[in-house]
Write a structure and sequence with these properties.
This protein folds into two domains: about 210 residues, Rossmann fold (3-Layer(aba) Sandwich), CATH 3.40.50.150; about 110 residues, 3-Layer(aba) Sandwich (Rossmann fold), CATH 3.40.50. It is about 30% helix and about 20% strand. The strands form four sheets. It has a seven-stranded mixed beta sheet, sandwiched between helices. Strands 16-15-14-17-18-19 form a six-stranded mixed beta sheet, with helices on both faces. A four-stranded antiparallel beta sheet has the order 2-3-4-11. The longest helix is centred in the last third of the chain and has 21 residues. The chain is an alpha/beta fold. The protein contains 14 helices and 19 strands. Helix 2 crosses helix 3 and helix 5 runs parallel beside helix 7.
């Protein structure tokens, strides 16, 4: 059965297997789009928000949102996320090229295409290995990549983009996508395009997606937002790729974005899968991730975190303690909105001075994002680490810059860190 491109609106059936046997495991209320920050003028106007529920398919075990927002609204021209904003993330993205070079053989100067290439950070890693690189990125971030010498097509990945690449470039030996399986609503268009652009003999398709095991084990409900339409175990990824003639030949757990799974597939049926594929599948089954009981208590556990964190912050506030946020990743918008953390609780959010989010306000909760230098100067009592998934690095960097207060880690369990 062919996968249908998901249309904006309420999801009625599974986005991969088309089963109607889907049910809710978590309700996070309503929220604005995580990377559609507001101007001062915007916060006095009516604001768009969308339902945010997590569903599970009993047939293929895919976790997915209940509502699809049009990709053109989510990934708008002024989309502010830059993948190369921190050294930590740069290193993680460059690990993709190291993985490919160390595990597979390619021709001289092969072509690599990265779909959803952002500022070109991932492709920089391949360029160092003398690969020809091409990015596809619909937002204005593409301009930053082109300035760095990373050839990037500023378009959505659709049939017209596929045809342009076919006409002007050779077949790709590597096509990569970090979180495109989560982000893109037109999966059918994506998979057909990848199949048509990839070298059928030597080519590999490498995807990296948030791993559903980490979402559940580590209570990472904050990574559930409207950009992320799906959260994967390995099993549904294999099912998805198989529908388009791909064979999964490797699977690796990686630390990116607090826990992801890197899956490599090929159109060449003669290549044998590495033992890692069966190992991860067996582990998922053994730990009960294909059983509905595994998901029964997730919503209650998330609700307890909300209450505990909110209570902790209000106790501090009632003692006249000054609290600020640190970092404004996409996941912070879900955490703030669901836990009712507004500008009544935290004074502002501190970001690096290279961030495109400075002087903007968070959707739903209306907290201003400002340069972290102001935080170092004013020395608040507590810093709520919204980029908690890079917590050690964030805390070490701020200590080096002179912050003397205490840190609050919101997940997986709210706690104070001296």
């Amino acid at each position: 059965m062919t996968i249908l491109d998901a249309k904006p609106g309420i999801i009625q059936k599974c986005q991969i297997c088309n089963s109607k046997n889907i049910y809710e495991i978590l309700d996070l209320g309503h929220s604005g789009l995580c990377d559609s920050l507001l101007t001062k003028k915007d916060i006095n106007s009516p604001e768009k928000s969308y339902p945010l529920k997590l569903l599970r398919c009993k047939k293929c075990h895919l976790l997915q949102l209940n509502f699809v927002v049009d990709n053109k609204e989510v990934f708008h021209l002024d989309y502010p996320y830059k993948s190369g904003i921190t050294k930590t993330l740069k290193d993680l993205l460059h690990s993709t090229s190291r993985y490919c070079v160390n595990n597979f053989k390619f021709s001289h100067k092969p072509l690599v295409i990265d779909i959803g290439s952002n500022d070109g950070t991932l492709l920089e890693g391949f360029k160092k290995h003398d690969f020809k690189v091409l990015g596809v990125e619909p937002t204005n971030i593409a301009k930053l990549a082109n300035k760095k010498g990373i050839k990037t097509i500023q378009k959505y990945f659709d049939k017209s983009t596929e045809n342009y690449i076919k006409k002007n470039f050779k077949k790709a030996e590597i096509i990569t996508g970090t979180n495109i399986f989560a982000h893109i609503n037109k999966l059918n268009t994506l998979m057909k395009g990848v199949k048509n652009l990839l070298d059928s003999k030597n080519g590999i398709f490498v995807t990296e997606s948030h791993y559903a095991v980490n979402i559940l084990d580590e209570m990472q409900f904050d990574s559930i937002y409207h950009e992320h339409l799906r959260f994967y175990l390995l099993k549904p990824i294999i099912l998805l790729l198989k529908k388009y003639g791909f064979k999964v030949i490797d699977a690796v757990k990686i630390p990116n974005y607090a826990g992801s799974i890197r899956v490599t597939a090929t159109l060449n049926k003669n290549i044998k899968p590495k033992p890692s594929v069966l190992k991860i599948l067996n582990e998922e089954k053994r730990r009960g991730f294909y059983n509905s009981k595994k998901y029964d208590q997730y919503g209650r556990k998330v609700e307890k975190i909300k209450k505990d964190l909110n209570r902790m912050l209000w106790k501090m506030k009632l003692k006249n303690k000054r609290i600020v946020g640190v970092g404004c990743p996409g996941r912070s918008i879900t955490l703030l909105a669901y836990c009712n953390i507004t500008n009544q609780l935290i004074d502002y959010i501190a970001e690096q001075n290279s961030s495109l989010k400075l002087n903007m306000f968070t959707p739903t909760t209306h907290i201003k994002v400002i340069d972290e230098k102001y935080m170092i100067k004013k020395q608040p009592d507590y810093a709520l680490v919204l980029s908690w998934h890079y917590g050690k690095n964030v805390m070490n960097n701020l200590k080096k810059k002179g912050f003397k207060g205490k840190f609050i880690m919101p997940l997986p369990k709210p706690r104070i860190v001296n």
